[in-house]
Amino acid sequence: MAISFTKSFTIPLMLTICSTILRFGRSYDYPAAFNFGDSNSDTGELVAAQGFSLSLPYGQSYFNTPSSGRFSNGRLIVDFIMDAMDMPFLNAYLDSIGAPNFRKGCNYAAAGSTVLPATATSVSPFSFGVQVNQFLHFKARVLELREGKGGKKLDKYLPAEDYFQKGLYMFDIGQNDLAGAFYSKTLDQILASIPTILAEFESGVQRLYDQGARNFWIHNTGPLGCLAQNVAKFGTDPSKLDEFGCVSSHNQAAKLFNLQLHALCKKLQGQYTDGNITYIDIYSIKSNLIANYSRLGFQQPIMVCCGYGGPPLNYDSRIVCGQTKMLNGTLVTAKGCDDSSEYINWDGIHYTEAANQYVSSQILTGKYSDPPFSDKMPFLLKLKF
Fold first, then answer.
1. Any idea which UniProt keywords this protein has (predicted)?
2. Distance of CA 20 to CAs 23, 86, 152, Å?
C-alpha cells in the first residue's frame, strides 16, 4: 500500500521514514559528506567570507535568525538530504565561529559561485576550482593534524582518514554560469559555452577522484527561466514566455546544459569503474513542482514571497529581501509574505523552505537519479511522496 503525504505534515514524518530507509541502504550509508556549489546549497560560506550579514526574514522559518547564512527562509535541499541520512547539517568551510564540527564533512558551496573561474565582476570569488582547492587544503590539514601529537583528541571534530574515500561528494553548481551570461551574451553564445563549462567541471571532479573520492552525487540545474529575477528582466515580452510564465531561452539553456552534464556523468560512470556516479535530475523535479503547484499545495509558482512591488512578481531588482531603501522618493521595505509555505520562490532567485522540502522528498524517492537508487533501497518502492 502506498503512503502519501501532504505538505502540512511532511517534514517530521517524511524525514523520519526516509532516515530509516537510507540507513537500510548500505550503498548510501556514508560516514561524511562534502558539498560543492552555489547559493542553492550555501550554508554560510559567502556570508562568512565577505563579512556581510543577511537580514530577517532570511532564516526565520527554521533557524529563527539570518545568521545561518542560508539564502532562504529556512532549510535548503542539502539540509533535508543530510537530515534524511541521519547526519548533521554541514558547516561552511570558512565559518569558524561557534567551533563548528567537521567530523561528518564540510560545505564549500558559496552563493554566486560559478563553475568557470571567477572574474572581477563575479559575485563570489569561490568558483568550483577554488572550492576544490579548499577541499584539498582541508584534507591535507586534517591528515596533518591527526598524525601529530594529540591527534586522537580531534576525533570528535575532524573526519577520520578513510572518510575521505568513503564519504559522499555532492555537487550543485552551474546555474550562475548560465544565468549570469544572459546579461552580456546571446543565447547562441551561451549554448556554445556549455562544453567549456563542463570541461572545467570535469577537471575538478577528476582532481577529487585523484585524491580518493569515489562517491559522487551530481545535481543538474533547475528551470532558470522560472525564477522571478529572470522573468522580471528578460520576460517583459509575453512572446518570450512559455505556458507557465517562464522565460523560454533560459530554460532552453538549462536543458542543453543538463543534457550534456548527463552525458558527462555517463562517461564518468564508465571511466571510474571503482566509483559511484549518480546524476540527479533537479530540473524535472522543479519543473513538475511549478507545473503542478496547486495540486501540491502551493498558491504561487513564480511570485516572490519576500520582495517588493506586489503582483504579478513582487520582485524589484533594486531592493533585496529584508532591506529598507528609498525608491522613487519613498522609503520602502522588501517584506516577507504572511505564509511562506504557499510560495515556491523566496526572494526572486532562491526557493522557500517548503519548496526545498518538496524537492528533497522527490530526490529521496530515487526515481529522478541515474542510476536509480531505489533498487538498492527496496523500502522506497512502497512509498509515494
1. Glycoprotein, Hydrolase, Signal
2. 5, 8, 31
